[in-house]
Design goal:
The chain is α/β, with parallel strands linked by helices. The protein has 10 helices and 13 strands. Helix 2 links the parallel strand 2 and strand 3. The longest helix is centred in the middle third of the chain and has 20 residues. The model has no long low-confidence stretch (mean pLDDT about 95).
């Protein structure tokens, strides 16, 4: 398997996954819509870095453009498809829910339809820890019921999992969905907490901290996540061949896998690590819980370990220090 088609290569996670695969000698075809959810200059910067590497090709178009998407996949004929493009952001889904339906549901449907027309060995799709919704049993396990989404974002991601299962069942295409937990690191999105915290601390503006600081997150460093995705490429699901703790479907070559650090970290401790790395204190402004947010995310990563022998291990303070080093270089 040497040819991989990746959607969202101009995005945060797609950029890192593409770089890792190029490092290993894969041929990578990137596909990205360059939307204006945040400044597309950052997306163009990421894509320019990838375009400078041997083995990388790119098509800039929307997932909703099914003719262009079909042609790109049919022409490249990848061995594996890694679908990372999506309308992201929990809070933005409260303002513009239609963008999530268009990108996440229609876009994913178009990708699955295009993929089934070629002989693809494995389709891998990004989901999110947000699908666990109002679940209170932690750490979250892939076999937990996910019937209580709290935002349209989470609902669209759960819908893509259902579409993936149906496609895997009808056409026999191996399908792995991974649920990401609070990914951070260099080249991240400017709407994400690390960016907002670093900018606020350096500019001396208050950090908006919700639920009065009583928030826990399973922070996952982006290069760890990229490594997990790479390793999962080599273990496509096979009906009747589960591992311990598997989410493998009994009727389709389909599974979901958590990718997280498997540590719940108080948000205030993350902010303290940011203050330490930047060498100055934050101005803290406490607020009640936001609509659609959850107090805690925490991944059970037993299945990831059983499938790949790997779990993310970058210690939070070390990861924050690396992010800050990159952020300061970009700020200059």
């Amino acid at each position: 398997m040497r040819k991989v088609f990746i959607t969202g290569t101009a995005g945060f996670i797609g950029f890192h996954v593409a770089n890792l695969l190029l490092d290993e000698g894969f041929s990578v075809m990137g596909y990205d819509g360059m939307t204006h959810y945040y400044d597309p200059a950052l997306k163009h910067q990421r894509h320019a870095m990838l375009r400078a590497r041997d083995g990388f090709f790119a098509q800039e178009a929307m997932l909703e453009d099914h003719d262009t998407l079909n042609a790109a996949i049919a022409d490249f004929r990848p061995d594996v498809i890694v679908h990372l493009a999506a309308q992201a952001g929990v809070r933005y889904s409260l303002e513009n829910p239609r963008a999530y339906v268009d990108s996440n549901m229609i876009g994913t449907f178009n990708l699955l339809e295009a993929a089934r027309l070629i002989d693809v060995a494995h389709i891998m799709v990004a989901s999110t820890s947000s699908v666990y919704g109002a679940n209170t049993s932690v750490p979250f396990k892939e076999t937990d019921a996910c019937d209580t989404p709290l935002t349209i974002y989470a609902a669209t991601k759960k819908a893509t999992e259902a579409m993936g299962h149906a496609t895997a069942h009808v056409y026999g295409i191996p399908m792995t969905f991974f649920r990401f937990f609070t990914v951070y690191g260099p080249w991240g999105r400017p709407d994400m907490a690390p960016f907002l915290f670093a900018k606020g601390i350096l500019d001396g503006t208050p950090l908006r901290i919700f639920n009065n600081g009583q928030m826990w997150r399973d922070f996952t460093y982006v290069t760890d996540l990229a490594r997990a995705v790479r390793l999962l490429m080599d273990v496509p699901p096979v009906v009747g061949q589960p591992v311990a703790g598997d989410s493998l479907s009994p009727v389709a070559p389909f599974r979901v896998v958590n990718i997280g650090q498997s540590q719940k970290i108080l948000l205030l401790d993350f902010i303290a690590a940011m203050e330490n790395a930047l060498g100055r204190p934050a101005i803290r402004e406490y607020h009640p819980m936001q609509t659609g947010d959850v107090p805690m995310t925490w991944a059970d990563t037993t299945l990831l370990r059983n499938l790949t022998g790997f779990v993310p291990q970058t210690e939070m303070r070390a990861g924050v220090a690396r992010f800050v080093e990159w952020y300061l270089s970009q700020r200059k």
